[in-house]
Here is the input.
Amino acid sequence: MLGLWRRIRRLGRIAEPAPEPPSTDRPDAAEQLGGSVQIRHVDAGSCNGCEIEIGAAFGPVHDGERYGARLVASPRHADALIVTGAVTRNMTEPLRRTYEAVPRPRMVVAVGDCARNCGVFAGAYGVTGPVSAVVPVDLEVPGCPPRPEAIVAALRTLTGR
Amino acid sequence: MTDSTTLGLVGGLLQAVVIVAGAPLLVGLMRQVRARMEGRVGAGITQPWRDLRKQFRKEPITPRGTSEVFRAAPVAMVAITLVVAAIAPFVTAASPLPGVADLFVVVALLATGTVAIALAGIDTGTAFGGMGASRETTILALVEPTALVAIFALSVRAGSTNLSAIVDSTLAEPSAVLSPAALLAAAALVLVIVAETGRLPVDNPATHLELTMVHEAMVLEYAGPDLALIELGSAMRSAVYLGLLANLFVPWGIATEAGVLALLVGVVAFVVKVGVLGAALAAAEVFLAKVRLFRVPELLAGSFLLALLAVTASYVLA
Amino acid sequence: MNTVEVALGCAAGSALLAVLAALVVRRRARPAVVGTLTAITGAAGVVAGAAALLGERFAVELPWIVPLSGIALTVDGLGAAFLAVSGAVAVAAAIYGIGYSHHGLDSRGVQATFPLFVLSLLLVPAAGSITTFLVCWELMALTSLVLVVSEHRRRAEVASAARWYAVMTHLGFVAVLIGLLILSAPADGDTFAAVRAAAADLSPAVAGTAFVLCLAGFGSKSGIVPLHAWLPRAHPEAPSHVSALMSAAMVNLGVYGIVRVGFDLLAVDAERWWWLLVLVLGAISAGYGILQAVVSTDLKRLLAHSTTENMGLVLVGVGASGLFASIGSPVLAALALTAALMHVVGHAAFKTLLFLAAGSVLHATGTRDLDSLGGLRTGMPLTTAAFGLGALAASALPPGTAFVSEWVLLQSLIHGLPAPDAAPAAAPTVTVVVLPLAVAVVALTAGLAVVTFVKAFGVGFLARPRSDAAAHAIESPATMLAGMGLAAVAATVLAVAPTLVLPTLGRVAAGLVGSPAPIADAVSVELVGVTGLLSPVLVVVALVVAAVLVVAIPRVLAGRRARREARLWDCGGGPLSPRTEYTATSFAEPLQRVFDTVLQPVQDVDVTHHQESRYLIAAVEYRRRVPDRIERHLYEPVLSFVTRWGRAGRALATGSVHRYLGYGLCTLCALMLLLVLA
Amino acid sequence: MSDTAYVQLLNLTAGAVLLCAVLVLWRRELAVIIRLFAAQGVALAALIAVLAWHEGSPELAVLAAGVAVLRAGVLPAVLRRALGTAREGTEPVREVRPVVNVAASLLAAALLTLLAFAVSRPIVELAPSPATQAVPIGMAVVLIGFFVLVTRRRAVSHLVGFLLMDNGITAVGFLTTAGIGLIVEVGVALDVLLALLVLQVLTGRMREAFGNTDLDELRELHD
Here is the structure.
């Protein structure tokens, strides 16, 4: 306990100083949210590379929460879905239902190249298509996997902070 | 209209407003403290208010197969907490409704709020809802003895279970606060509060894993304004519990006579006390891990022991 | 000619008329006629009780009815309270019975017994002499027994339940009989007045024996642990309106007996250990009963266990009252006794409501198993509302019926401890040790009661149906709803305006322990002598106002979008089947695990594998039973002993007539020898 | 020092002594249990110091110092050594599965406290004074120590239980016969040390024999 306390004192703040807010235009649904976006993450068939980066984006270093974004446990609590990976056949219907479960106004962020255009899995037999083929996508984050900075920038575009 | 009635009415209204407005800030403060101790920056203490504003504007959703119980539960829970916030001595020692400001009534009312949410959780008919309800009510049942025996310990000294009377007696003899009885009772009540407000180590309010949830599991189906009410309600519960703890043991600063200055001092003192308690709780949580559900009874048995010791201590150690 | 006399006359008259009607009226009209007349009986009982509570006294001797001693009726305050309660329960149950009796309960025997049972319930608290009391008591036992077995053709369990009930209730009767005879022996005449007068010169040992015997007998009638074994069997198996009468009216009479003997007949030589015994028994019953209720999944059995719990709480009040009286603080004694009486009244109201609602569920679905109920709110909204109200009342949460009485009880317990700096004489060690534990037990009971009734209501009526029977349930006929409605109104009134009865009960209690009335005549419950103030009506008003605010303010501030229906959040997978719901068993599982050292559940898991490979599992079967420990460790040895002796005795009976005549001869000679020697 | 302050301090120290005993029952890690025992030693010493201050008797003060050294310094150190050697062994350093589970033993402790209170009430009423008022706490500590002795499996926690009893006895001794406790205390301390060494040797032997110090293993010696 004391050891932990000492470490807390020694480390102090780990989070890096906030970079410039992104200049990309916000989806109009985001305007209605007023600086608070709760996010449900859906893995539609990802290789978990993007998951690791999302985890990093909410870790102490990048601290996505400081911009008013928060991961939640149920799509009912969410304003935005973060979808990763090319949508596989088995995840097509669940993804659609998850989208239906989110109360309006709602947004979808496609994170990673697979989510945008199926990446290397394009045309694979188990793949339905990119996320945009199943649910309307408001924002895309390129990269395989995208850097946490990019994900944080996308989150800031939603929260506007 | 006597002086104390006016004080009660004005103060009751005032403290209800203060709690409704301040409870989300308390949650924000606790999150902020945790964030800072974890080396993060944190979203700022006004973030919960932003969340609430947004959720109130969002679209309400009625899951198919749920009944009026599901829709009424959040209102009932917030209403109950609001009543407690208005009648218990937070800003003023006098109460607008002396016939309700009884420690048993307050504890039982807060339990009723929990029951409303538990019924809603069952009403959804999902496995998680039932699981959360089952766990929440189990903890509620095991907490009850501790709470009431601790109340016993407090009220023996005051000769009454009326909250105002207890506060007045503490104000009358400040030395009693340092007596072992009071300290043990305080320790027991802290454990009660941790269990009732679903904080670590009993429940992890920030968990995403349904199987480890207690309170969260019951509200997975709520969206939009209903969810906002639920979150506001649980924030108010924390504020009310912490406020009770603060004013039962350290009532100084509470307004005892009507007057703008007195009320102002009362508000400031209340806010400071609750803020300090909340920050301390959040800081302690950084060092704690959630205990297994079936280790919780040990914790509560321990707190019950403390409460019982508090009662006997007030006789053993005159 | 006073009201009580007239009302009691009407009660007896209409009851006998009902019996007659049951015998002559033809089958289709029978339940209606009998039900109406029995309801009139009950109503007359209520009137009599109310009149006597308001101060009218009534005593009558009818030497010509029963040879030797005759019948003596006396209605004083204590008796009146119980008289009124029994009457009120009878009204609701009788009206309910009209609709309920139509499936198989409209035979002559059952219909003729029901009014007699009600009448006996009214006469026991009105009895003025020991003979009368015992006669009515036995009448009550027999009629209730007949009613319990009335469904034995439909269910096999009924027979065994009836056997348990018959044996236990008659053992109890024997105990009461001996106890009361000990009391009446030194008295001239067997009226209560005479016994009271003679009680002064009983030796402590004799008085103690008599009290313990009566405690055992009466305790078994009100299902006090360890004499409770019959209650969770007989109450569920009886027809539901009879269950209501038994569980809400008959068990009270056990309490009546204890109070009558301890506070009235033997008041002069009551000792502290009597009341400690009562207190401890009550605490054990409360805790054990509610624990069994939490883990039981049979709706009516759950209610029966909760009856044991509530009677335990009542006895905690009675015992505490005696304790306070023995340490010389009559005010608190009166307060605790008032709490006990109030709990009796409240329990009668909500337990009637709950049993009637459970009966209408049984009537509609044919099952009492919570694990296969659920989703009844769509099919039977009124029953659901009734049960919900009853559950709120039973779980001691404000604004509920039981909360008021438990609040008064807790107040008396808490004020039982004087301020720590008082002289040690003011706080005898026993109270300082006992009272905190008593408070803890009451609190634990309250908490577990919450779990029990959240389970019963939530799993049984909310969520989605777990069986076709529950899915296609339809609302019950109007008469049954009317019966429930009466009980619901009573429970609500008692919850919101308890001061309609509390001060009166307070005066009754005060009269018994000789103190000023403990509760003031006011809208809010205001204790006299100790500080304590509770106003249930204000609680309700405040809650309503707050609810209105909570609904209104967000709409004004934040506007509102249209509500949308959406499918249940099933994690995106297929639709959830009812098999994924939490059942009553799974709901209680955590508590069962917490208390497994007390409950010692028996559970076994069978896994059947595929014959191809042991790694493929065909089926997993899980069974769990919570046997009654006390029963296993207390009753089974006795039963096995009895059976062994029965076997041994069979050797004597070979069937040869000569041997039997020989036995007779030997006995005769033995008796003569005895006479010679004596 | 003022009278109320004296009473307050006395009560607080006594309460701390009892609280440590209860926490010993609550926690599982042997290291924590030993630390709690040391804390209780400190509280006990403080209690005696308060008495000394109130009576203004130097030898009581000396005794307080002695108690502090023995109960908060020496004995915990010895216990830690026993634990340290245990750590080198393979056995876990926690009270894994007590005979009576923790929740139940906490409730038992509650009842024991009430019992102690009920028993010592008459003694208190012989000479009611702030000091004697606290006697029941000593009693309770003795009973709880005995309970630990009965229900814990590990040798170290047995030692702690034994020492808790001893602490309780010491507390009672000082609270009742303040001042002339010197001989008592010295004698008690000596035989405690003796018993401790014996048990120390025993645990060592046991570890050599069975590889751990679960006392149930002693049943093996029976046949």
Q: What stands out?
A: Chain D touches chain C at residues 101, 103-104, 114, 117-118, 121, 125, 128 (CB under 8 Å). The radius of gyration of chain D is 18 Å. The longest helix of chain D spans residues 58-88. Residues 52 and 177 of chain D are 12 Å apart (CA to CA).
